[in-house]
Amino acid sequence: MTLTSPRRAEPVPTPGAGSARRYLEIGDLPLESGRVLPAVRMAYQTWGRLNRSRDNAVLVLHALTGDSHVVGPAGPDQPTPGWWDGLIGPGAPLDDQEYFVVAANVLGGCRGTTGPSSPAPDGRPWGSRFPYLTVRDQVAAEAALAERLGIRSFAAVVGGSMGGMRALEWAVMYPERVRRCIAIATTPTFSADQIAWCVPQLAAIRADPNFRGGDYYDGPAPLTGMAIARQIAHATYRAREELNTRFGRNPQPGEDPTAGGRYAVQSYLEYHGEKLGRRFDPNSYLVLTEAMMSHDLGRDRGGVDAALAMIRAQLTVAVVDSDRLLPPEEGAVLATAPTARPLITIHSPHGHDGFLIESEQVGKVIRDALADA
Question: Of the listed 161, 284, 322, 348, which one is catalytic?
Fold first, then answer.
């Protein structure tokens, strides 16, 4: 099972040439672990044109199982529609008549950027040999991509959830290259509680008989394990009140839970678990989850407050009031940064996923941040 496109180097496109997925080789990447990941390839999409001053670029960073396909329909090379549809385009919050918008598939992913399913130097998929990554490694890869695209600095770096973690690291690691940082539904550190929710997800994938230590690409993938992992995760993405109101204790239509049938909420989670297996590599799920677990803005920087003080960009922080995965009080810590604007609360009954669902509110957050110089 190989989910990446054939390895090839492609020329840098003319800025504004369209939003088809493209690839750039960024070379060998030194990692925080001390290892070097060789011949890294980044998959990305762009919208709009880079201006003569090269100062109108905006970087959009996706969450755990997203990719570079921020907006647009599903197609031959895109199994799902854009995950933040309506965000980019003429008159949209990120107006591609004004901004050059860039979105890359994250390092370790499975939609074209180097990850566990990519060929290693010996031609075989990396599999179990793929190195451990941190959020900072992923940002370093994105920075190398920006350099090769000729982007001197970003007018804004925008991300939600795991993408928000990378947006924050961008603002700390490359303060001179980020003028605005927009971090939505995210946190300064991945807490013990959040790690605890991830641990059984990792275990479910690794316990699948098809996992074979991570070297399963010549046979069936461990999709049952990943489906269970996604069920666990998805329960944290939605609010308790929403699940109780939407499903209650109702049975799945035509089934009787007291006779071995399923509850409606059970069927809902099973659907989302099975759905992910159609488009995502279980090894990438492991690598990206562990990278997310590494997130600690204050690590080796004297703590979170000291790290926040390193940010020069105007910082916009938005939280979702019903978020139980990355609670609003954690986002509020980010809004204490010296360069932060007042904390913004997105009102949603949908929990953490509100950052994807409440498009009008999210759009206003981004418009206002870009308008506030």
Answer: 161
Active-site residue, selected from the candidate residues 137, 281, 296, 323: 323
Residue 59: how many CA atoms within 13 Å on its side-chain side? 32
Q: What percentage of the chain carries pLDDT values higher than 90?
A: 92
Q: CA distances (Å), 84 to each of 91, 209, 291, in order?
A: 15, 35, 22
* pLDDT for res 89: 95
**CB-based contact 178:313 (threshold 8 Å):** yes
Quote the pLDDT of residue 1: 32
Q: How far apart, in whole angstroms, are the C-alpha atoms of residue 15 and residue 279?
A: 29
Residues 6+ apart with CB under 8 A from 213: 127, 128
Residues 6+ apart with CB under 8 A from 253: 264
* Three-class secondary structure of residue 59 per DSSP: strand
Query: Does the annotation mark 352 as catalytic?
Result: yes
Distance of CA 312 to the CA centre of its chain: 23
Concerning whether 62 is annotated as a catalytic residue, the answer is no
> Is pLDDT above 70 for 344?
yes
Which element (helix H / strand E) includes 314? strand 314-320
User: 234 catalytic, yes or no?
Assistant: no
Q: Which residue intervals of the chain are DSSP H helices?
A: 135-148, 162-173, 192-207, 223-237, 240-246, 264-276, 282-293, 304-309, 328-334, 354-357, 359-371
pTM: 0.94
Q: For all residues of the chain together, what is the average pLDDT?
A: 94
Q: Which of 285, 340, 351, 279 is nearest to 315 (CA)?
A: 340
pLDDT in tens, 191-244: 999 999 999 999 999 999 999 999 999 999 999 999 999 999 999 999 999 999
For the chain, domains (ranges, CATH) are 22-190+295-371 (3.40.50.1820), 194-292 (1.10.1740.110)
d(CA 307, CA 298): 5
Q: Do 201 and 232 meet the contact criterion of CB atoms below 8 Å apart?
A: yes
**pLDDT value for 372:** 80
Beta bridge partners of 22: 44
Burial (0-12, 13-18, 19+ Cβ within 10 Å), 245 = exposed
